[in-house]
Amino acid sequence: MKKMNFAFWKYISLGIFGMIGSAGTILADAFFVSDRLGSTGLAAMNIAMCMFGLMNGTGLLFGIGGATRYTIASAQGNNVRANQVFASSFFTALFMGVAFALTGLLFSNPISYLLGANTETIIMCNIYLKTILCFAPAFVLNHLLMAFVRNDGNPILSTCAMMVGSLANIVLDYLFMYPLGMGIFGAAVATGLAALIGISISCLHFLSGTNNLRFVRLKFDLKEIATVVSLGTSSFITEFSSSVVIMIYNLLILKKTGNTGVAAYGIVANLALMVLAIMSGISHGLQPLLSKMHGVGDEKGVRQLYRKGIFLTFLIGIAVLGAVIAFAPVLIRCFNGEGDMTLQALAERGLRLYFIGFLFVGHNYLTAAYFSATEMPKQAFAIAFFRGFIGSVAIVCFLSMYFGMTGIWLAFPVVEIITVGLSLILQFKLNLSHRAVNLHQNISVNNQERSIEI
After folding, report:
1. Which of 99, 120, 199, 431 has its CA 20 to 30 A from that of 449?
2. Is residue 447 situated within a structural domain?
């Protein structure tokens, strides 16, 4: 029991630090851009953020999905198959990253307009978008390698890769934007270099001498890739959908309050990103433990870890909401370098309403991770797809139509509350199904025993 508790807190804490490092990279960009380039620069960067979600989500798609398959195969003693999963996941993700980079080089301007850029923001948005897409292979492989390194028993190195990359990004942001005066291009380059630094640190795992993770001769198996994708889909949707929702919010807010409203949402979204990183870190930290226990058939241990994780995320949600209610003005002023009173008022109100959702979001993150880690991709997909796409888009459009900006701010907590209900229904159906299977097995055993007696 003590060993399980130690592993729980070790993987949870390292997962949280790692994901905070990832979110810190984007938050640092937002802080320096808002201070140096004002609300227009912040709005431009926020519009381009959708593509971050696509790149990082692709890394998690093959990283979390592949690492889950890797862990289960390793727990069952099949190291050859485990490393074939790694090789297939790595090269497929690399191909996707190169495709993103080529897309950015050729189509960054029309993509910027599609995401919501206007005459005020198009120049900076286009520069930022084209630059980060050139680093797409680095963003994708950074997330993939950290997932595999963590699942191969080295969560400390995985966390270090994320944290060092984030710290490097902050230093490079300052250097490129202030002494060198590189503007929003400098912010994008700093973020890309941070991903390359993260990859370099993760690669130290292959030199450690204790790793089981190795590159093997690639045997491309479409069925295996499909399995990896199915297990990683919920992580992809969770990451990418947040960016799609940002795009939808930007378009709706642009109609309601213009670029000032988009900048206000940018502040709220970036602060929310830090809390989402904590929740995501808990789910990512638990995933290797859940997969390992599932691989060896310890379903009781799986349920115990899941319940502990749910309780922890709820406590964090209460603490975060309390802090936001108390310190909203101070938090907003950190990103309001121009002292815009309209921006301040919009963002303060939005922060307090939006963050109600963090009482529930941890439950939804962890439940989706639990389903994925235990090879139940359909249930994981249902949760991630509803809260990420169907529910979020439909509810924010409906609430904005009838309640304006207040409805937009409240859409996030409403979606999370409904998703909790959906996840409870899915778990209830699974429990009924398991009971029916157990009852059928008991009846079969009893009939066999009677036949033997006769």
Report:
1. 431
2. no
